[in-house]
Recover the amino acids of this structure.
């Protein structure tokens, strides 16, 4: 199926970005830029839903064959047997992603028009944001690994640009650079993983990096030979048994591990998670869109997209599960002790992403995507809510200076409460279903690799769930309940986004709702401790140079933080909050498991995605029937799993790949989704565990409430507040040694000292010889010519003589 | 027209230089601005003429064939010919040269105050020499152009360079001249070997004749498919010249000095074109004339290339001088090119050729941009800058864009080349290049991409972002139309070459494949050992 509307989905935001950049910088009209930016994403969203739900066979999400919708544009790189197309494809997985990305993206764009109101770089901000949408959609809709990588690095770039959006603030620049470099480390793995995938498929006779089979009618007349799905080829190979040596064996496990390195970068997992909390230096809508809802879940997308690869590598799945669980609990403990409202949410995001990888690791790929979606709703909501709080508090981010805000900001409070309950796993809210699904799948995991530690991982998961409820309750209590601490004088100022942002206001008052001067921040000199840190004037870069110094002075005068009067945000900001709140409540209802619904409501989500992901091999399965058992019963064309007893053999069995070519998407799929054959004992056990989850969630909320409503400013362990000193350790153990070693070792000693020393020494020797010849030659250039000549003749003669000797 | 086009290309800049000299001689008091217009005019006409190369299917036919060939006896006493031609390997390098030259001349529009006539004349002479290098099919002719390119560059650095210009110029000259003299010995040796073929009267410098003679075994450099020691020495003599030019670690130390001290236009040409003469020479001469030795020596070059990639990047990271940083990044980038060539795969070798073009475009643009702030501030120290995005937003945008191209962001040109190179090496055949753990080599080389992000972004942050702390930077003027105009073609190319590399790769395919096949077909064990030599006796 071809539907070129798919290309519109991707390119509409790019057009928006170009218009914002080229026209916006000249026109400087916020309404124009806002309309273009939101409009382009709206177009994209509408087209995404059209492609997903309408058209041939019912659209990408509904067609019974689970076949992807293609939009092949051109062949990007073609050298030898290697081929990467510039073409898009929407199957059920990318369809789910594209729909929530464009929809949530649109809401956040709308929110941002209110939040960024009055900012000097308004057009620049929206150009970046639109460019991000383009890259993100390229990432999920690209029909091969390399085009995914384009989006993968592209979103990293946009993240870099947007984190560093307040260009004159050092910490924003540092955070941006850190994010890009951490992502690049991950990208190293992705590139190598892609190469290994090609190498593996080459060995199997179908060199490819495409996700799907692309028949000639999709490629068009000049498209060249048919493209065979790489995932299907690998799906047809034997499963590599569990064993650490497989990581370095250069097979499927190695490919999976390399790809997962990329995921740890992009999705902020241990050990590369350190960039995400710092990324909060960007404007809050950016945090909501990029660093909560979309980009950071790209790692999950990739793992699930390559589920055919991961499911053949139990060792890799084990690593994924352990890293995910470890990250989940690690970040949750840090989240408890943070005082910056955005930092709490950042660590919460890291923790929730850990959950998603835990799900992937135990083979519950659908549950991972389910959590990605519900998380996109409630975490975007929480971030936007925090943005609304920050906005209403006149750019205060420290929760210690908030409190009692619910009567000032009723809409923000109500909507954030929905997000809070959703993430805490309050029954029937979206987060409850997705998180419970993951926990249950972890407990009941029979997957080769993680079966042994499934119970332990579940304990980690349930503890994390409790911690999540505690720190989210703490956030809510500190912000919305308790005494109104914002009238007190400030202890210290942390240089964060808010402060930089605030400085825009004096040039162009950004809040039309501010009724009186009394609403504006006071500025009493001496009020702020380190006024300098606050003076990061975030005027985009395009103001006239002439008024540069005047501004500088103005900033010295104004904007010390004094007591503020909070206020509710304008409608452009509250409407997205309300919509997201509704989704946070009901969003989980598309995926109610059989155990809870008793079959009354179908689990639409699982039914939709089940055909396009591979099923992880169960424990023992690897040994009994290796090749293809798990993978080749794709969707509708049910195929008898052929049993090969080739455990331990290198994955070169092409035969399976051939056999599966009838399958539309080329993915393996579960032969029988568990839902269709519920085992009563299992159902009752699942219900029991759901009960435990509910209890833990409520317990967490209770503990958080009891502890923090009494003592909202309760000091917490230093170790947690300082994030286990991981940044410091990285700095001391890696960054400084590399810098110093490069400067003092490589450059000063080897380059300048040794190599140049030898060269100059030779030069001096020749010059000494030249000194003798000086009597023959006069003049500067000539003496050099003489040196050169003599030296050259000597070397030449030596070589000629030597060579002659050798040749004889 | 066809047989004369290459000669016209070589002569046009030369005539331009003569015109400049004549103008200086006969109208010594004329407005000095005339010079730059004359130089620009000639370089633009040369560029336009070079585009005519695309009218023929250069590189699209079978490999090993040359187009626009002109072959006339030159010094008949020694069998030297004037033999020029172009194939898929040299085609884009010729066009890169003709494109970068008018851009460099435009970049020197206002910055050359001292003796502009001589400056522009040297630039045009340099262009003639570089074009000659890429189209010569006679080794003596090649050598002459190779050496001739040194002289104008020597003077450009020595006379119009920075503070340590003399040191840099002499270092550059001695380093590269020594290398190329070794090559001259090799060339003469080949001439001698040809003259020893029974039934041949006198030697030849002709590349095609020598190539065929070696391939057909008339000049025997192998015994039983094994390279003789004679081939080893010949290979080494040629490789010495090219390694210095590339520059391969550890003979790279002339480059940071030369790049840093050269005037902007000189740096652009040096990075953009001159370095490619080294990799071009390896691919054209070493690979096809000494294929057994190329395979035998591959591990040596691969190791040096990987060292260069990482070392260049790490040292670039800690440079306090922007230009020196870009110079060291060239060492890293050229390491990639060498790595790709010695993968002996279609991907790696085409990627290497593509990366040569990319490096010319991206690093050329970087030097142009650095030159633009140098003109304004007369310093290149990173610590002197900071917050330039505020007074110079357009400059900042273009600088970031070019840097991203340099670090290999997908959809920009650098990515395609680097990816193909790493891809090629990953998928290469250890039996061909004798490096068993190609995956490990690729993994190490791929870290270069991480380092690239580190040094480029760190530099960008310190130069462009943050608050303007130095009062001297507050009122800098943003780029003017001339500056944007001269960067524009390069920026467009970065995007185009990144998104649609096919036209470039298509023209290069057959010729690169021909070279690759020649190397791969050569004796599978290019191992020299004493028994082989005994067998000859």
């Amino acid at each position: 199926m071809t539907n070129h509307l798919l290309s519109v989905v991707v390119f509409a935001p790019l057009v928006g970005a170009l218009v914002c950049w080229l026209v916006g910088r000249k026109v400087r009209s916020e309404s124009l830029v806002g309309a273009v930016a939101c409009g382009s994403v709206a177009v994209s969203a509408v087209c995404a839903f059209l492609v997903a739900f309408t058209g041939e066979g019912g659209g990408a999400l509904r067609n019974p064959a689970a076949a992807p919708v293609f939009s092949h544009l051109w062949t990007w790189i073609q050298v030898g047997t290697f081929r990467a197309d510039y073409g898009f494809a929407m199957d059920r997985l990318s369809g789910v992603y594209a729909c929530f990305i464009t929809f949530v993206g649109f809401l956040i764009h709308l929110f941002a028009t209110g939040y960024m109101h009055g900012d000097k770089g308004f057009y620049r901000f929206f150009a970046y944001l639109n460019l991000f949408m383009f890259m993100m959609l390229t990432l999920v809709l690209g029909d091969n690994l390399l085009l995914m990588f384009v989006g993968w690095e592209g979103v990293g770039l946009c993240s870099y640009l947007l984190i560093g959006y307040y260009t004159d603030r050092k910490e924003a620049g540092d955070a941006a650079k850190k994010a890009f470099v951490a992502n690049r480390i991950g990208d190293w793995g992705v590139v190598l993983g892609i190469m290994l995938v090609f190498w593996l498929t080459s060995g199997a006779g179908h060199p490819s990096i495409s996700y799907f089979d692309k028949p000639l009618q999709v490629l068009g007349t000049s498209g060249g030979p048919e493209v065979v799905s790489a995932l299907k080829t690998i799906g047809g190979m034997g499963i590599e048994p569990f064993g650490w040596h497989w990581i370095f064996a250069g097979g499927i496990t190695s490919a999976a591990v390399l790809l997962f390195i990329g995921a740890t970068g992009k999705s902020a997992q241990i050990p590369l998670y350190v960039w995400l909390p710092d990324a909060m230096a960007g404007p809050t809508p950016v945090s909501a869109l990029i660093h909560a809802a979309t980009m950071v879940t790209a790692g999950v997308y990739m793992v699930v997209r390559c589920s055919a690869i991961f499911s053949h590598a139990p060792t890799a799945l084990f690593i994924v599960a352990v890293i995910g669980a470890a990250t989940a609990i690690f970040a949750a403990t840090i989240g408890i002790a943070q005082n910056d409202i955005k930092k709490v949410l950042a660590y919460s995001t890291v923790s929730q992403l850990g959950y998603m990888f835990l799900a992937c690791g135990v083979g519950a790929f659908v549950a991972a995507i389910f959590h990605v979606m519900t998380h996109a709703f409630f975490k975007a909501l929480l971030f936007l809510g925090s943005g609304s709080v920050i906005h209403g508090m006149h750019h205060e981010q420290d929760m210690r200076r908030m409190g009692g805000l619910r009567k000032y900001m009723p809409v923000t409070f109500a909507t954030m409460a929905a997000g809070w309950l959703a993430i805490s796993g309050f029954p029937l809210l979206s987060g409850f279903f997705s998180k419970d699904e993951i926990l249950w799948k972890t407990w009941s995991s029979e997957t080769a690799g993680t079966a042994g530690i499934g119970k332990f991982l579940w304990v980690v998961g349930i503890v994390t769930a409790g911690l999540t409820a505690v720190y989210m309750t703490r956030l809510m209590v500190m912000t919305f309940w308790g005494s109104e601490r914002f009238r007190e004088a400030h202890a210290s100022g942390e240089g964060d986004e808010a402060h930089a942002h605030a400085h825009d206001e004096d040039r162009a008052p950004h809040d039309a709702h501010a009724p009186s001067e009394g609403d504006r921040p006071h500025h009493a000199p001496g009020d702020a401790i380190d006024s300098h840190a606050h003076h990061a004037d975030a005027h985009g870069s395009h103001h006239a140079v002439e008024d540069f110094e005047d501004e500088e002075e103005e900033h010295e005068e104004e904007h010390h933080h004094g007591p503020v009067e909070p206020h509710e945000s304008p409608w452009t900001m509250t409407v997205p909050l309300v919509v997201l709140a509704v989704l946070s409540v009901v969003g989980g209802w598309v995926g109610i498991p059989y155990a809870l619904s008793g079959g009354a409501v179908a689990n639409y989500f699982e039914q939709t995605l089940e055909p396009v992901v591979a099923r992880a091999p169960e424990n023992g399965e690897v040994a009994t029937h290796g090749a293809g058992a798990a993978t080749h019963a794709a969707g509708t064309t049910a195929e008898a799993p052929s049993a090969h007893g080739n455990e331990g053999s290198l994955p070169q069995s092409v035969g399976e790949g051939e056999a599966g070519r009838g399958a539309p998407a080329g993915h393996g799929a579960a032969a029988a989704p568990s839902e269709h054959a519920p085992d009563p004992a299992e159902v009752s056990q699942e219900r029991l565990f759901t009960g435990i989850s509910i209890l833990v969630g409520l317990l967490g909320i209770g503990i958080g409430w009891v502890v923090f409503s009494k003592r909202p400013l309760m000091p917490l362990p230093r170790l947690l507040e300082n994030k286990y000193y991981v940044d410091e350790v990285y700095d001391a153990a890696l960054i400084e040694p590399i810098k110093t070693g490069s400067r003092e070792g490589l450059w000063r000693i080897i380059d300048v000292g040794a190599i140049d020393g030898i060269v100059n020494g030779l030069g001096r020797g020749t010059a000494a010889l030249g000194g003798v010849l000086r009597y023959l030659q006069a003049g500067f250039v000539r003496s050099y010519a003489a040196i050169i000549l003599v030296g050259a003749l000597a070397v030449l003669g030596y070589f000629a003589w030597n060579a002659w000797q050798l040749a004889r | 027209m066809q047989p004369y086009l290459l000669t016209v290309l070589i002569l046009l800049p030369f005539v331009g230089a003569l015109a400049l000299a004549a103008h200086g001689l006969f109208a010594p008091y004329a407005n000095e601005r005339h010079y730059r217009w004359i130089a620009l005019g000639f370089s633009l006409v040369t560029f336009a003429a070079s585009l005519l190369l695309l009218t023929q299917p250069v590189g699209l036919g079978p490999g090993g064939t040359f187009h626009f060939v002109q072959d006339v006896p030159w010094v008949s006493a020694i069998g030297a010919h004037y033999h020029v031609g172009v194939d898929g390997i040299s085609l884009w390098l010729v066009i890169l040269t003709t494109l970068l030259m008018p851009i460099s001349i435009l970049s020197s529009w206002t910055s050359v105050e001292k003796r502009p006539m001589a400056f522009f004349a040297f630039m045009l002479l340099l262009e003639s020499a570089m074009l000659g290098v890429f189209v010569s099919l006679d080794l003596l002719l090649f050598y002459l152009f190779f050496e001739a390119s040194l002289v104008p560059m020597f003077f450009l650095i020595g006379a119009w360079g920075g503070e340590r210009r003399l040191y840099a110029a002499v270092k550059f000259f001695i380093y590269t001249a020594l290398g190329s003299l070794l090559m001259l010995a090799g060339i003469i040796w080949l001439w001698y070997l040809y003259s020893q073929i029974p039934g041949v009267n006198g030697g030849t410098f002709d590349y095609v004749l020598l190539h065929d003679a070696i391939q057909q075994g008339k000049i025997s450099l192998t015994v039983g498919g094994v390279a003789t020691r004679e081939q080893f020495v010949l290979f080494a003599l040629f490789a010495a010249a090219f390694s210095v030019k590339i520059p391969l670690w550890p003979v790279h130390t002339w480059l940071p000095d030369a790049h840093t001290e050269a005037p902007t236009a000189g740096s652009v040409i040096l990075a953009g074109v001159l370095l490619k003469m080294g990799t071009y020479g390896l691919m054209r001469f070493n690979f096809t004339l000494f294929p057994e030795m190329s395979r035998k020596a591959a591990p040596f070059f691969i190791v040096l290339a990987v060292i260069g990639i990482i070392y260049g990047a790490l040292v670039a990271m800690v440079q306090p001088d922007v230009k020196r940083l870009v110079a060291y990044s060239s060492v890293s980038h050229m390491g990639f090119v060498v790595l790709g060539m010695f993968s002996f795969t279609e991907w790696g070798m085409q990627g290497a050729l593509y990366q040569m073009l990319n490096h010319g475009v991206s690093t050329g643009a970087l030097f142009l941009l650095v030159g633009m702030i140098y003109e304004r501030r007369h310093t290149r120290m990173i610590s002197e800058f900071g917050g330039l995005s505020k007074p110079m937003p357009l400059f900042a945008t273009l600088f970031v864009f070019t840097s991203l191209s340099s670090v290999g962001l997908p959809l920009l040109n650098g990515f395609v080349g680097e990816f193909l190179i790493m891809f090629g090496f990953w998928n290469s055949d250890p039996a061909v290049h004798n490096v068993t753990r190609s995956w490990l080599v690729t993994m190490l080389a791929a870290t270069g991409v991480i380092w690239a992000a580190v040094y480029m972004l760190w530099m960008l942050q310190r130069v462009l972002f943050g608050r303007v702390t130095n009062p001297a930077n507050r009122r800098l003027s943003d780029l003017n139309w001339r500056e944007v105009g001269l960067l524009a073609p390069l920026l467009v190319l970065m995007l185009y070459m990144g998104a649609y590399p096919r036209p470039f790769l298509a023209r290069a395919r057959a010729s690169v494949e021909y070279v690759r096949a020649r190397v791969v077909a050569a004796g599978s064990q290019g191992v020299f050992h004493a028994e082989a030599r005994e067998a000859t006796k």
Observations:
- The two ends of chain A are 71 Å apart (CA to CA).
- Chain A touches chain B through 71 residues (CB under 8 Å).
- Residues 738-807 of chain A form one domain.
